[in-house]
Amino acid sequence: MSPLARATARPEGPPAERLARAWERLLACAHGAGDLSTVPLDGLGADQQRLFATYRDFLAPSPDGLSVVAHLGQSLDGRIATEPGHSTFVTGADDFLHMHRLRALADAVLVGAGTVAADDPRLTVRLVPGPSPLRVVLDPDRRLGPDRRVFRDPDPPTLVLCRADRRDRDRLGEAEIVGLPAPRGRLEPRTVLAALFDRGIRRLFVEGGGMTVSRFLAAGCLDALHLCVAPVIIGSGRDALSLPAIARMDEAIRLAPEVMRLGEDWLFYCRLRRAPLPVRQAQEIDMADPAAARARLDRPEPVPTP
Ligand SMILES: NC(=O)c1ccc[n+]([C@@H]2O[C@H](COP(=O)([O-])OP(=O)(O)OC[C@H]3O[C@@H](n4cnc5c(N)ncnc54)[C@H](OP(=O)(O)O)[C@@H]3O)[C@@H](O)[C@H]2O)c1
Question: Could you give the domains of the chain?
């Protein structure tokens, strides 16, 4: 039995140790060595319960076998960066820890070309124990050069998703280039999800930026949206969410989020209803793992956060 499979979540011990054990348990469940639905929450410490409550849904796939979570760290006035693209740091250290946890639990982390251009991120897991996921960059027109860090480092692997007619070679640095159909000149989020599903991705973390998360939200391609709001006003700059215009308030997306404190910031954890992948894949996952599909449907109510 692997060390991860042995990980338990006993309530006793100093807070840091308790949390580390609960985290090990989550990692074990995420990467195939355990089932979170068998973890009894009764008797756990409040900190452990909160950790499970925050990440449990991400680990339970929808009936089509996928789980897609997006996160944005935004200012009070709804910006994620200044106009030139500086975003270090909109939210605080606790939110960064949260993002690294989401990366570690995910099979893949996805960002738009704007984020790679502005931040040159590594997209690896460094703040918590856990594996770094596959990195996915949406760059439909292949405007990014090979000098970016995600394309220079071979580990973890990186995919560049572009329009099929822009795939002029197999690789960009160490990354693999994958061309996707773009009938209206755009990569549809559903096409992206289906392509990643075909490559074995079951848990996807959409890490930004604003345009990318907005397109996934508008297309009904998110199971959850984590909006972390920092008590700062930027006043101008890059928008967090930007959706097609509506005329009336009853067309707005009204949510019933769980709200959690993350250091100085507030995390709005919004559960959404994602449009399922095409039936062919849903049937495949139902047959392949009926227990996982059932677990998602029978999911218990979230544990209230302390
Ligand atoms: N605070 C945070 O949480 C956070 C997180 C990440 C990034 N950031 C900041 O946000 C800024 C970048 O965000 P952004 O909104 O400007 O850009 P972005 O979302 O990172 O990238 C947008 C680009 O990605 C491509 N793209 C994304 N989704 C697509 C889709 N469904 N179909 C086709 N193409 C798609 C498009 O490329 P083309 O234009 O080539 O078509 C689009 O312009 C940076 O300043 C970064 O520092 C902040």
Answer: 1-59 (no CATH), 67-242+256-297 (3.40.430.10)
Task: Give the position, in ligand 1's atom list, of the atom nearest the Cα of 80.
Answer: 1
Measured distance CA(90)–CA(231) in Å, rounded? 9
Task: Give nearest CA residue, ligand 1 atom 26.
Answer: 112
Tens of pLDDT, residues 208-247: 999 999 999 999 999 999 999 999 999 999 999 999 999 9
User: Which residues, judged by CB distance below 6 Å to any ligand atom, belong to the binding site of ligand 1?
Assistant: 72-73, 80-81, 85, 87, 90, 111-115, 118-119, 138, 140-141, 143, 186-187, 189, 207-212, 215, 238
Q: What token pair was written down for 9? A: 């979540």
Residue in the structure block whose two tokens are 């709001």? 229
Candidate from 39-43, 139-143, 236-240, 281-285 with smallest mean pLDDT: 281-285
Report the separation in Å between the CA atom of 209 and the middle of ligand 1, taken as the mean of its atom positions: 4
